Every structure is written in structure tokens, then in C-alpha cells.
Amino acid sequence: MLRDVLVHYDSGDDERTQHWSSSLPVPPVVDRVHVVASPRSVKAREKKNLTTNRTGKEEEEEEEESASILVTDGARAFVFRGRDLDRPLVSLRFDDDEVCDDDDAQRKEKKDVQVVTSSAWSQDGQFFTCAVGQRAVFVHTRVGRRVVTVDLKEDLKENERIVGECIAPAEREGRRLFCALVERSFYSSGWNIFRNKKWKRKRCQLEIRAIEFTSEDDVVIRNSSQMKKIALKNVEGMVSVKGFQVDEKTQTVTVVGGATSENDEAEEERTCVTMYSFSGASENVFPVVASGKASSAKSKNKIISSSRCNVSIDAAAQNATTRVGIFDGSTRSASLWETGFTGGGEFIVGENQYQRISCVDDDNSAFNANQPASSATLLSNNVSAFSNDESGELTLRDDANGTILFQGTFAHVSGIVEITSNSKKELKRVCVLESFPENDQSWRLITIEERTPEEMFEKYLDMKCWDEALELANAYELDTNALYKKKWFALVDDLHKNSNNISSSKNAGTLASLVIETLSSISDRKWVVAECLLRVAPTYETQKLFLSRVVAETERFSSSRNDCTGEESKWWLRARLVALGALDRLETLRAMHLGNFSSSAFESFRFVDYLDAAKSVARAGNARGLEILLQRHKEWFRNHDLLDILAEIPECASVSEYKRVLIEIIDGCDTSSGRKHQLRAPDWCESSVILQNTVSKEHGMTLVVERDDGSAKEIPLHSTIERDADDDAVDRTTNIGQWVI
Fold this sequence. Notes:
- It is elongated and about 125 Å long.
- The chain has 2 domains: 2-45 and 56-451, Methylamine Dehydrogenase, Chain H (7 Propeller); 569-738, no CATH class.
- 24% of the residues lie in helices and 29% in strands.
- Strand 20 and strand 21 form a beta hairpin.
- The strands form 8 sheets. It has a 5-stranded mixed beta sheet, with no helix packed on it. It has a 5-stranded mixed beta sheet with strand order 15-16-17-18-22, with no helix packed on it. Strands 1-30-29-28 form a 4-stranded antiparallel beta sheet.
- With 741 residues, the chain is of the alpha+beta class.
- It contains 17 helices and 32 strands.
- 40% of the residues are buried.
- The longest helix is centred in the C-terminal third of the chain and has 26 residues, at 567-592.
């Protein structure tokens, strides 16, 4: 598979609103922006089930699309459709919420800007949560309507804080369970809510505070007594929570924490990882299913990211392994953990009766690279994404075989998520949140999309990247005809756009070589002949070049002209006759228009019956043009009743103007005055023997060419086929006579 990089939404282009108020301190953009994707795509809904009362409930969209993307930028949140990342579907801001009631001066003095500290999606992608600060969480529908407000700033104690949140299925059908993870800290002085810098954290208690809700609700929680409390057992003795992730496949909540005090000046020595199952939750506890601890990575590099850990999970059923990727922003390092728990089965609730999760020491892993990272994430199917903070290089790696799937350079990667879809045929799409440290306002969404060689080939053609398309076609044995045909169409379009610049001899020579080179590269030679016969050029020189290519293409049959008895050979001879006839008409029309050329006039004249053309010219009062037409093609007019042409001459026309025309008609087109207008010498394929042999049993004296859309076009040979005039004859030929210089 190939990877294609596409740039979508750029916050720097949005001049309508600033993401931050100038009166408040602005955190660095690399700390401020985060991205999270919903775990599954939103399913299509029936129209009758949609909520349409926009005064109380937002209307859900009736469509099936890939997973939604949630980007948080300080106190703002943006929701993007997975299929439309160019503009946000929802834009919310929390710094003007009632939960943030401190005035700007107080907040500036405290150096505490209210920001979205964490966010998460529900398993079905219908709801998302945003935690603002350490004591408030909001739940919104996918289209931005708020359904739950949890504001515990007056209820939580000084040593308590909300460190994460999730939405899990509730026991009652149609309802969800909002869960806030609350951390309660214990210090060396005992349980003291007034922290002193000299006191160190010794341990913490973890607790889920939950409440059921539906999409119809507008719940406001200001007291923990309104919420159900579920204990989480701290089996590894963690003292602070740094990461929190919910995994749909394993039905687990994974908590990552540290084993030393946050106030300790020394480097952290231990990292704790514990997985709890919410599918096997009892009335008052989430059982532990896997847990372990290991030494944390140490780093002497300057801390540029937040101290929170980004946790990503990949459960692989084929090898009964769940991988947990942990990226620590404080040390800019990534670690990979593995456990044998993959969800389901019986839960053994008891002392130390759970799976062990261990840190994998693999210095060769891209996810465990020793170089400082700005982001590291586990994706599905044993794929990991790792961004080097010094070089800006982002790597996608297949951990199963060590293959590098993609490498590219970005300013700063603040987050990496995978965009999933309900469709099993959907290829992998990775969304990158790129931020710019030199510009605290700017970030953008970029996707790295997995494409087949055929899809990438088509994209190169649409972008007119001919060299890249040719290289790809040669590498994957793709049909290069599609490339050169597309290049031919682009060349013809350019000819019409720049027709005024083709007149010079230098440009004409360059054009001729480009046309010949492009057409010569196409192996489907019948297609080339059909294009040159049917294509109308903007200039006389270009049109003559097109038709001359057909004559040159069929020249190879001159040596075997008497043996051309098969239908295939006859087709090529008929094509030569059509090209010669079109060249004759091109020269005739140019002479009629005093050396000038009109593409629209030639398009009308090239395949029309000569008698209809003569009537049109006479009807337009173009005496000189009619004279030239009769003289140059007198062999054809000699066998027809020309009085019908005289009937088309306007009654008000001067006899003196049509004197020479009258002489031509009266003499049956057999006057010596036509010598200066004589056509070329007969071609070898115009002999009576070959003309007789080229007659097709099925189509007579016509050439049938196929168009790209599969339709067939019949072209008369050398304009020798007589036909009855139809209702559209006047409309098709009017342009010939009216285009008079």
C-alpha cells in the first residue's frame, strides 16, 4: 500500500475568531492542542428517528461516515467529520462558561488559564467529553448540544481532582454511563488538604463517579452525592494519575500513574499501569484485569510538553496480546507494554488474581526510540506512529515485521489518531495534528491515507504529476495508456487556453514535438486515430497537425495496399480516406475565410454534406466563399443538381456578386477559372481499386470509431455518401456560411 499526505483544516487561516483572549497568558501551542478520534464510525439513522426540534435538541445527521475527530485548543473544542476535515462541524469554547467564573485579573495572577485538560469519545461516537481544569467535565452530543454538566469545584476537596472521564454503556437500554475518574491524594503529613511544598505524596485513592444519561437530558451535577461511586483498587501503589484511556475492544479502562511524589525534585523512578474492566463491574467496584510497574525513562532534555501521559491501546486477537503504548510528555519518551488479557472471559476478583502487564524493552522499536519524541501512538493492526522531536520526522511502522510504512517531516506533531470506518474495505487513515511552536495560534490537521497503487496513480493523473505517475506505473506494472491519454486531454485543454501563443514558429515547433511524443507513447493506435479525427483544434496549424498524424499512421499500409482485404486493414484505409477528406475541407474552409481559421466553423464543415454546405454559404450571401467551394470540389458537384443552391441565394443579392458562381453552375463546374483552386494530387489509397475494397459489409463507406464513453461515431468517407436533408441540416451548417471575414 502507498501513503498519501493531505492538508485539511488550518487554524491560521481562520481570521474570524481568535482561539485565545489577548488579556490572558497563552500556553505554548505544543502543550495546548490535543486530538482524539471516536473509536468507531457513526451509523446511518432512519429519518423517522431523527430529532428535529432544534430549540431543545440538535438534529442528528442521517449519514454513515468515518470516525469523528475532536481537537481541543486551550479552552476551545472543534469537532470534525472524518470525511470532511476541511472545516469543523462544531466549535465550542469553555473559557466563558459559568464554571470559569474567575475574572481575567485573578486568573492571570494565578497563571492558571482554564483549558481542556482531557477529552474522550463514547464507544458509538455519538457523544464526547471535555474536562476543563481539574473539577469540571462536560458531555456533548456529536453535533455539540450539551447533555451533562459536572461542576464539582465547590464539592471536591483540596486533595481531590478529576483526572479523566469516559462514557460507558449503561445497564438500561438506551442510556449511557458517564464516568469521571477522581484521584484523592495522601501526603506525608497524613490526610491534609492544605498541601505544603515540603510534604510529599505517598499514595492515592482512585474512584469512579458515575451518572446515567440519555441524549434527551440536560443534567447539571454540582454535588458528588448525585453520582454513583465505584472504587478502583490501587494495586501498584501509584501516587498520581498521569494517563487514562478507555478501550472498546477489551472493555477496559487503563490508568497510568507514577510511583513517586509530584513534588519530588528527583526524576520519576516507577511507572504504574493498571487495567480495569467496566464490562465486569460489580455494584461498587471495577475489577482489576491486568497490572504492573516498571522503571520510567529518564531524560535530561528540556521539558516542552505537558506532564500528562498519552495512552493508546491495540488489542490483537490473533496472538492474544493487548499492547499499551505510553507517551510521557515530561520526558518526551515512549514505552510499550504488553499483557495477555484481550477482554471477555471470567474475571477472577481477588488478591493478585489478574494478568501481569510488563514494559517491553526493545531499543530497535520505533515506538521505543531513544530519541526525544513529540508524540507516540499505537494504531490498529500492530502499527505504531512515532514523531522525533528534534528532526520533526514522523514514522509509521509495522511492528509485526519492522517495515517502515511512511516517513515524513512536520513542524511539531501534537497528536496522532487513526480514523476508523464501518466499512471493512476502508483503508487506514491516520490524522496528524501539526502545531507550530513559533506561532502560538496556529495548528492544522493533516491526514496520511493508505491507498492502493491504482488509487495513487489516479490521483497523480488528476494532479497532472506525469513523472510520478509514470514511475508508479512502471513500478507496479500499471497501464501507461491511461497516463498518456490523460496527458493528451490536458494538452488539448492547454491548446485551447493558450491558442493565442501558438502562432509563432518556435511555439508551433515545440507543440508539434509534444503532440507527436504524447501520441506516440499510446499503444492503442486506433484510439489515437480516433482522437485525431474527432478532435477540433483552436488553430489551423494544430488541426492540420492532428489530421496529418492519421495520414502518417496509415502510411505503413502503402506497401501492402493490394493485400488489404481483412476488416482490420480496411478500417485503417477508411481512416486514411477520412483524414485526407478532412484535410481537403480544412484547406477549403481556410481559403473561403481568406486565410483565417475558426474552430467552430470547421467543426460544422468537416463531416457535413457538400450540398448542405453550399446552401448554407449561399444563404449567408458569401458569394466568394461559394465560388471557392464549387471550384475546389467541382468533381463532386458535377454529379448533382446545382439549381437547389441558386434557390438559397438571397433575392436582394447583386447579380454582379454572383456572376462567377452562376457561370460555375451553368457550366456544370467545368470552367478553366477553377484551375488556381485545384486540390492536391490523388493519394495512393484513392484509386478505384482500393476504394472498392475498403467498402465495409456492415457499415458501407463509413468509418466507425469508438469514443471513450463506449459510444460509436460514424464518419462518412471522403464525403462521397449522398443523404437526404433532415430537419437539423440547416442548424448544423449555418455556422459555415455566417463565419465570413
